């Protein structure tokens, strides 16, 4: 399962984004990232790959803040 997530600096929360391959269709979903991770685990996801959209391609390393509270 691949999850595209975006950190919103105003709210301090990570949100799942949908249709990220097409900029005109990309939208923020109702799901906070860790809530969605837990949901897909319940549904049987065997592997989860988080794509941190804010960090992608900027050479600053992985945003570990998104996973600090993960179960």
From TrEMBL:
Q: In which pathway does it act?
A: Amino-acid biosynthesis
Family to which this protein belongs? Belongs to the HisA/HisF family.
Molecular function as annotated in GO: lyase activity
Superkingdom per UniProt: Bacteria
From the UniProt record, report the name of the gene that encodes this protein: hisF_2
- What GO biological process terms does the UniProt entry carry, in alphabetical order? L-histidine biosynthetic process
Any idea which UniProt keywords this protein has?
A: Amino-acid biosynthesis, Histidine biosynthesis, Lyase
Q: What is its EC number?
A: 4.1.3.-
Keyword field contains Lyase: yes
Protein name as annotated: Imidazole glycerol phosphate synthase subunit HisF
């Amino acid at each position: 399962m691949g999850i595209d997530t975006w950190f919103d600096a105003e709210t301090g929360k990570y949100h799942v984004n949908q249709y990220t391959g097409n900029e005109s269709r990309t939208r923020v979903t109702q799901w906070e990232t860790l809530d969605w991770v837990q949901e897909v685990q319940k549904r049987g996801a065997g592997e989860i790959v988080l794509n941190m959209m804010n960090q992608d391609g900027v050479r600053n390393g992985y945003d570990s803040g998104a996973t600090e509270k993960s179960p």
